[in-house]
Amino acid sequence: MDSGILISQSDKRPIYLQIIEQIKRRIAVGDWSEGQSIPSIRQLAVDIQVSVITVKRAYLELEREGVIVTQQGRGSHVASTPGLGIRLHQEELQQHLKEAIRLSALLGIEPKELESRLREASDDIAAKERS
Amino acid sequence: MTNFAIKLDGVGKKYRYFTLDNIQLELSPGQIMGLIGPNGAGKSTTIRILMGLIHQDHGDVRVLGHRMPAEQVAAKWDIGFASEDMRLYDAMTLDWHMRFIRSIYPQWDQTYAQLLLKRFGLRAEQKIKGFSHGQRVKATLLLVLARRPRLLVLDEPTTGLDPVARHEILRELTAVMNDEGRSILFSSHNTQDVEQISDQITFIDRGRIIDSLDKEAYLNRWRRLRLEAPLGIELPALPGIINIRQSGRLAIATANEFVPGIAAAYENSGARIQMIENMTLEEIFVAKVELSRDEHEEVGA
Amino acid sequence: MKRSVIQTLILTDLRRHRLPILACIASGIFALGLIRIGGELPVILGTIWFFTGLIVLGCLLPGTNVINERKKQTLPFLMSLPVSITQFTTAKIVSTVGMFIVPWLTLVIAAVLFILGHPRLPDGMIPVVLAIATLTLVGFCLIAGVALVSEAEGPMAAAMVVANSSYGLGWYLLVRMPGVRAGLASPEIIWGKEILTVLGFEFAVIVLILGLTIYLQSRKRDFV
């Protein structure tokens, strides 16, 4: 099974985080649906040429977050929770929002200003799409 | 007796200008261990001792359950060895070498060998002396891989190879992990390869093992903190920080035992944390070696 | 299983050196042909050529079969196979000496038949020719043994000098033995006590050299 996961060397983040993110994305966009089986730890390790221990760490973390389930001797599959894909998309949005808030704090930007900036950016995008 | 693939216990070897001291190394089956160290650190010597090619002065060496060097013949049936200074017979073809190995090892997988020829872009009917450096390395690895040995011991398998060849080889090495019973020990000073495919990492420098552990746990312990400290603020010395470099208002702290408490401690002291970065294995390696050498010199050993 | 790895190593060495072995045999037969033709110059040339072929091969083989494994760095490749140092050395001795013995034996038999068939050469020469020929075998074993143990060209060259000097010296000493000299010109082959002692001594030295080689090799602790 082709995992479609690609580890980027220019990405400074640890490999296990990249794996986690890409698996979540696959689920979020609907490629991997709830309950669907996914490559086992070893299979994925071989597929993307990464150590087993790194994939294991990613899978453990994903299991802890309730995104996947690993069963001894039976491999791994996406958790069967309905609406998982949407939930993951929501979480990603939250992450981005938190990051935006953190950066604004560094720059000394107040939440109110952040709000108006968000509206501005949204209008910009809408305008571009219309033209 | 535990079933380690490799177990070195208190191994030592003394040469005139170099001593290998108290080498402790364990590799569990189904794992890949990367052995890193500067040139002359003792990687090749350690590898040759575990292959039974060099007899240790003291210490216990067990490979696949066999005591080395006494039981090296039994062990070598299941070990695939390739080292950077190893050469094949120039005047003979790759095909000759394949038939040679095949006549000795019953586990030779001819189908896989043919697949490797294609993947590596090698021509079996060509004489070894006509091969480029990269082709020769790949040919040597093909001879070792096609036997599907239980243990692969590789001394600098990707050194001097172009990126494409390196990728081809890493692909075959990780493919070995499909079989839980097979293990790999490889030495390299290419920390990127080691970081990518190793489960365990062993650092060696000047004949001593500096560290030997689980890669993810190890990478997780190290951080680089970029701090902004207004002039006049004293940055506290914290446990888990091995190095602070200050330049004007900016400081970079290197942590080898990072806990979130460290970040809090800095902020409490008035410094502001700009960024907490993970470190690559190369950066960790250099920091570790420098630290270890400083410590060693202080002790005056 | 052990034996088949040694066998494979031996056969591989033999096959790799096919050409030099055949060349040596061919040149030896050619040399005998020269002697058969007769006349002072052909006989002298032929005799020298006959022994030279063997001596050249004797110098070449330990170099290409033994020293080269270290020089061309094929030793780690071979030692990664399921063999011990002792097994490897044994295989090398058998193949190196074996490669020499094939042409050696061929030429010795050819020489003996030649003398037997030659109208003017007394058959009594045969034991002496055998003794000198065996001396070249002793010399070769010395060179091969030194090459295996020292793995260096210097000591091997020294061994070659010692071996090659011994042939002339050996001939000189041999024909001075009264029992030997008496039998030389005889039309019958005489196996005198002296010549038999010499031959026995030569074979004992061969066994000693080869045994010592295996022993010294097995004691090495840093092989590769």
What are the main properties of this structure?
heterotrimer; A: mainly alpha; Arc Repressor Mutant, subunit A; three-stranded antiparallel β-sheet; elongated; B: 301 residues; Rossmann fold; Alpha-Beta Plaits; 2 domains; six-stranded mixed β-sheet; four-stranded antiparallel β-sheet
Number of domains of chain A: 2
- C-alpha geometry of chain A: elongated
Q: How many structural domains can be distinguished in the coordinates of chain C?
A: 1
Question: What is the CATH homology-level superfamily of the largest domain in chain A?
Answer: Winged helix-like DNA-binding domain superfamily/Winged helix DNA-binding domain
Taking the alpha carbons of the first and last residues of chain A, their distance comes to 41 Å
The count of helical stretches of chain C stands at 9
- CATH fold type of the largest domain in chain A: Arc Repressor Mutant, subunit A
Major sheet strand order of chain A: 1-3-2
Average pLDDT score of chain C: 86
Number of helical segments of chain A?
A: 5
> The biggest beta sheet of chain A, please?
3 strands, antiparallel
Order of helices and strands of chain A: HEHHEEHH
CATH architecture of the largest domain in chain A: Orthogonal Bundle
Apparent shape of chain C: elongated
Mean pLDDT of chain A: 88
Instruction: Classify the oligomer.
Output: heterotrimer
CATH class of the largest domain in chain A: Mainly Alpha
Number of strands of chain C: 0
Quantity of strands of chain A, as a count: 3
Description:
The complex is a heterotrimer of chains A (131), B (301) and C (224). Chain A is mainly alpha-helical and 131 residues long. The longest helix of chain A is centred in the last third of the chain and has 24 residues. A 3-stranded antiparallel β-sheet of chain A has the order 1-3-2. Chain A has 2 domains: 64 residues, Arc Repressor Mutant, subunit A (Orthogonal Bundle); 47 residues, no CATH class. Chain A contains 5 helices and 3 strands. Chain B folds into 2 domains: 213 residues, 3-Layer(aba) Sandwich (Rossmann fold); 79 residues, Alpha-Beta Plaits, CATH 3.30.70. In chain B, 34% of the residues lie in helices and 29% in strands. Chain B is built from 10 helices and 14 strands. In chain B, the strands form 3 sheets. A 6-stranded mixed β-sheet of chain B has the order 6-7-8-3-9-10, with helices on both faces. A 4-stranded antiparallel β-sheet of chain B has the order 2-1-4-5. Chain B is elongated and about 75 Å long. The mean pLDDT of chain B is 91. By secondary structure, chain C is mainly alpha-helical. Chain C has one domain. In chain C, helix 2 runs antiparallel to helix 3 and helix 3 runs antiparallel to helix 7. Chain C starts with a helix and ends in a 6-residue tail after the last helix. The mean pLDDT of chain C is 86.
